Please model this.
Amino acid sequence: MKAVVVVVLYGKKVEESECVRSLKRYFIDNDDIKILLISNSQGKSIATADWYEAYQATENLGLTAPYQFGLNYANANGAKYLITFDQDTEINENYVEAVRQLFEKNIESTEEKVSAYLPILYDVEENRPCSPGVIDPRERLSTRRYEKENLSDDDVIVGFNSGAIYRVEALNAIGGFPLDYPLDFSDGEIFRKLHYAGYYPHVMDNIRINHSLSINSNDGMSRMRFVSFLHYAKKFYFETASYLAKNSDEKALLQNKYEDLYYEYVKKIKRKAFRRLLTFKKGEPTYSTIRKIERGELVLSDEMINLGRNFESKIIRIG
Model:
């Protein structure tokens, strides 16, 4: 076994996921790959088949815990790569060929610090690339589009988890996936940790796969999910100083800077895609909700913050 593939399903049955259908189309007879399907939806039973292993989470665990489950599986079975997906990504022949070529070549010394191989994810709703992106932590923390010719030494390349081909060795070097980011900003945090540990992603510029970004759809984000998104955006921004500060004085200055950057980000998303998602029920206007978040009046419960912790006994093999 050379790679473990993990697909996290939520709200869909196996046969409803284009990701699963495309995996079956291309990987069903590949002995180098073990496919794990993990369902986060307690209301939908997960079907079994002989070409994948099916698992049911006993409660919603987010994304990070199932990916860590896959990493543990990869380590236990000697796999070199971990390939992660959510249900909204569709692979194609070019991606499959890239995986095949990766399996066939030996990692050279120049690639020992590669953290992951990233395709270009194309958002089919917005008709534009959505991953990877670039963060310049000295200037801003929202991502800009990845352009190979416009990178600096300070830039952090971040990619979505879905479609990423991680090197297991790199993930192990940083202690695995960040369980304190159970869903939103988990991919930003994993690539940030890898970057400051001396690893970098290899962007496969000529490989493009389609992705449906759930947060861009009117039914893709609940009120609580939006509050969760803002909670982890704030956590991501405020923790940046810990990576960059050389001493306590610089950390305090950077924390003030990133606090300002976070509130600029909140204002930005008021004006853009999230604006239409903020009126969730009658009597709760858009800007009223945002102001509550800004004042800290809408916060996550301990249950939401600890989502995915102690996951080992909560992912059950089916069949």
Q: What stands out?
A: The chain has ten helices and 13 strands. The chain has a mean pLDDT of 86.
